[in-house]
Each structure stands twice: as C-alpha cells, then as structure tokens.
Specification:
With 150 residues, the protein is an alpha/beta fold. It contains five helices and six strands, in the order αββαβααβαββ.
Length: 150
C-alpha cells in the first residue's frame, strides 16, 4: 500500500502542531516579543547588536550627535529583562550585571537607571531626551520609537 503525498503532509502538519510550531507562531511578530525603544529625539533608527551591547553595557555613553544616552532597565529578576538580554543582546542577564558592577566598583562608570515596571520604562523613555529601554511590543505607543537591531 503506497502512502499518498497528502497523507504525508497531514502527518507532518500534526507533528508540527505537537511540537508547537504553527503557521501563526513561526516567523511572525508576537505581541509579547521584546523591542528596543528610544526617545523620539534620538537620531538613530537602526543599530548593530554590538552597539546595543555597548550601550546596555554602559560603555557607549553618547549618541552620534553627542547627546548623552540614558539607559533604563528593569530589575535583574524581571522576566522581560531576561528575555531582552537573551534575545536582543545575546548574553545572559548575569553578564550585564557583572559588567555594571565592574564599572561601579572601579569608579569608571555607573549602572543604568533602574525602574520598577514596563509602564515606568515607557514613561521615562518618552520623557527623557536620549533615553533607551525595552518593552513588550504590545506596550509600545506613539510617544516612543522602536530601534531596529541589525
């Protein structure tokens, strides 16, 4: 008995459903995905991952036009902070904390501004020239700009 191609496709589709891959979730933008956001006055709309790491590692302190960068982050244990570090920076959150601690203890820098909620990140980024932070896509409005990471 020969297996028909349509039977094969049905089995493949069922297998993909079982492992959690569906057309609606594969490769689409999720409302819970994390995005890097900046104040509308920031002169940059695209940024390399290395530059983003330098900004959140507190090594890059000014935008291209010379204006200061103000970094806002959630607490280390916040799920969105962990997601941001892993997805956007490709590092573990403890690596960020370690970099900040080195700067503080050596006296050569400071940690980013710590906020308590996504709402506070949105408010602070929207009201602080030069600000950068991260939010779930669903929490982004027209008071801030998304920064595209290359």
């Amino acid at each position: 008995m020969a297996v028909r191609f349509t039977d094969y496709l049905c089995c493949l589709f069922l297998l993909l459903l079982l492992i959690g891959v569906t057309p609606a979730t594969s490769g689409t933008l999720d409302s819970d995905s994390v995005e890097v956001v900046v104040h509308p006055s920031v002169p940059v709309r695209n940024l390399s991952r290395n530059s983003l790491r330098a900004i959140f590692g507190m090594r890059l302190r000014a935008w291209q036009d010379g204006s200061p960068i103000r970094v806002f982050v959630l607490p280390d244990e916040a799920p969105l902070h962990n997601l941001f570090a892993k997805e956007k920076l490709n590092i573990f959150p403890y690596q960020l904390r370690s970099a900040w601690d080195r700067l503080i203890f050596s006296g050569t820098g400071q940690a980013p501004f710590l906020v308590n909620s996504e709402e506070e990140i949105r408010t602070r980024v929207a009201s602080t020239p030069g600000a950068i932070g991260y939010l779930k896509r669903v929490n982004i409005d027209d008071t801030i700009q998304i920064l595209h990471i290359e």
